[in-house]
Design goal:
By secondary structure, this protein is mostly helical. It has helices spanning about 5-25, 30-40, 40-60, 60-75, 90-95, 105-110, 120-135, 145-155, 160-175, 180-195, 205-220, 220-225, 240-245, 265-270, 290-295, 300-310; strands at about 280, 300. Strands 1-2 form a two-stranded antiparallel ribbon. It is globular and about 55 Å long.
Length: about 325
């Protein structure tokens, strides 16, 4: 895509950079924190969807889709806002898996995390099933898998929106090595995604459906994976899925590169995802308005995560 089609996107980002420069030293961690927050906001993502993704879909360009998927997932994983515990990263994690980037899964859900309990129910169930998949291996039972899966199965069979139930069903299918269930659930993920309350431009491609597919490929045998049927839906490209499965090496290429004074953003987005850090934000609070459970709740420690991502000194953003 020619740069002129993204002029407005770049001009807006340059304004954010100029604003950041008014209060922070250019190139400092605080400067980039301000810019990365802007980059993560809706208007910037919308520009990428409407310009880059639309053209890649129109041209049925799998390499172009991969560059877009990679960039949008890495932007989504920037630790710029919080409010939940580690479940807050589930959607962007599945989006990153759509690029066949499975190595970062152990950074986004590192060993030692507790089960998720503070967040949106679908995110909680999905995160906890993934933790069981990653760390309950062989004779090693880190998490109470029976309890996790019982709750997840109850959610998957509830009257919650189809898309939410189907995502959890997919994750359970991967955990159980259940090819027929994964095939059916992937179809429902794509169908249900078009019904959720999100911007129309996001519905052009069900990015996380590819991620769920690639998750199974990572943890299943070739014979098990060969039994999976690809979804038949307008927001799922079989051409991209087949192209992705055929690749032996995928570069970390961006669909848009940033020019001075924002060139460092390119390197930041290509770094491994920030390792998830959590903390009990209100543990020592004496507020009478917080319950004991609320005081014990875990939250993403986005300041620490951003410090580590940017190579800043500990405490920089405190």
């Amino acid at each position: 895509m020619e740069n002129k089609e993204l002029d407005q996107y770049m001009k807006s980002l340059m304004k954010s950079a100029a604003s950041a420069k008014e209060t922070h030293t250019e190139g400092s961690p605080a400067y980039f924190k301000s810019i990365l927050k802007a980059l993560s906001s809706g208007p910037y993502r919308q520009a990428l969807y409407e310009k880059i993704l639309a053209q890649a879909v129109k041209e049925d360009d799998p390499a172009g889709l991969h560059r877009f998927f990679y960039q949008i997932a890495k932007i989504g994983l920037l630790p710029t806002i919080g409010g939940y515990d580690h479940c807050d990263r589930l959607w962007s994690l599945l989006d990153l898996l759509a690029c066949a980037d499975a190595d970062n899964i152990y950074r986004i859900l590192p060993e030692g995390l507790p089960l998720s309990s503070n967040g949106y129910p679908m995110y909680i169930h999905g995160t906890n099933v993934l933790l069981c998949l990653l760390y309950n291996t062989g004779d090693k039972a880190v998490y109470a898998q029976d309890a996790v899966t019982a709750k997840a199965e109850k959610f998957a069979s509830s009257k919650k929106p189809l898309w939410e139930r189907a995502v959890i069903s997919c994750l359970l299918a991967v955990l159980y090595h259940d090819s027929p269930r994964l095939s059916e659930s992937l179809q429902n993920v794509c169908a249900g995604y078009n019904r959720i309350d999100t911007a129309p431009y996001r519905k052009m491609q069900c990015q996380h459906a590819y991620g769920l597919l690639m998750l199974a490929r990572r943890f299943w045998s070739a014979e098990e994976f060969a039994a999976v049927s690809l979804p038949e839906y307008k927001n799922f490209s079989k051409n991209y899925a087949e192209w992705l499965l055929a690749q032996t090496h995928l570069p970390d290429e961006l669909c848009v590169t940033y020019e001075a004074p924002l060139t460092e953003i390119n390197a930041i987005l290509k770094k491994p995802a920030a390792v998830t850090r959590i903390y009990q934000q209100y543990l020592n609070s004496d507020s009478p308005y917080l319950s004991a459970a609320e005081k014990k709740a875990w939250y993403l420690d986005t300041d620490r995560m951003l410090e580590e991502l940017l190579g800043a000194a500990p405490g920089t953003f405190r």
